[in-house]
Amino acid sequence: MTFSGYLVIYACNKSGLHPSLYDGVCDRIIVEGTLVLKASRTVHKHESTEVRQKQIVNAARKLIIRYGSEHVTVRRIAREVGFSEGAIYRHFKSKKDILALLADHIEDSLLEDITHSGTADRTPLETLDFILKSHLSAVEQRRGISFQVIAEIVSLGDRNLNRKISGTIDKYIGHLKGLLQEAVRAGQIRNDVDLDAAAMVLFGMIQGLVNIWALSNYRFNPLERYTPLWDVFCEAVVKP
Q: What is the pLDDT of residues 107-149, one digit of tens each?
């Protein structure tokens, strides 16, 4: 445990305590036979488990984007967030547990975007367009785009993680289908369109675009390539 302030150790010349024992840990000050140690480290403020876990998960997200999921280790996560490995293990049993919570955070984020995007000012199709664009936005890119993290987690081949990610994708596609149903009721989309297939096409469109963006080493703006894809989709399903 680190500390701040002054630690005073009374030592006589006969004590055998040598100041070099404290090199790299604190500054040494000798005052009339008294060894005064001024801590050079600062105290980590007590933070709740939830805050610590969020910091760890966000670090894992950044590292996945930087190195790929297979190269993300607890040691790297600890270094990224500024904790010891032991501190990480106090919150998570393993790397897989970290990724499982990351998957939960991704699900909450994606579904929250859909839930809170509908307004009276937008038609169902406009809402769909807005949601998909938001998942390709500059803000999303900075925090590590969710769809890329999904692909990286799947690449690990862990059955439990894949089951969790599959559930997230199913819920996401289900919400897209719900918006497509609203568009049918609003007279925007043809009644003969297979909405399950249309929702899956939308998901595949975004996931595929993100994969290509990542493989190009992020050399283009995904939003610029999204627009023509959206236009092709609308031509296929919108009422004439």
A: 888 888 777 776 668 899 999 999 999 888 876 776 668 888 8
pLDDT in tens, 152-194: 899 888 899 999 999 999 999 999 999 999 999 999 999 999 9
Q: How many helices (DSSP H) and strands (DSSP E) are in the chain?
A: 10, 3
Q: Which of the 8 DSSP states describes residue 193?
A: S
Burial class (CB in 10 A: 0-12, 13-18, 19+), 57: buried
CA–CA distance, 70 with 95 (Å, rounded to integer): 10
Choose among 56, 222, 63: nearest CA to 152.
63
d(CA 120, CA 110): 21
- Secondary element (H or E) of residue 35: strand 34-39
Residues shown for the chain: 240
Residue 47: predicted pLDDT? 60
146 by Cβ neighbours in 10 Å (0-12 / 13-18 / 19+) ranks as buried
Residue 148 CB coordination number (10 Å): 20
| Assigned token pair, 77 | 């996560």
Per-residue pLDDT at 139: 66
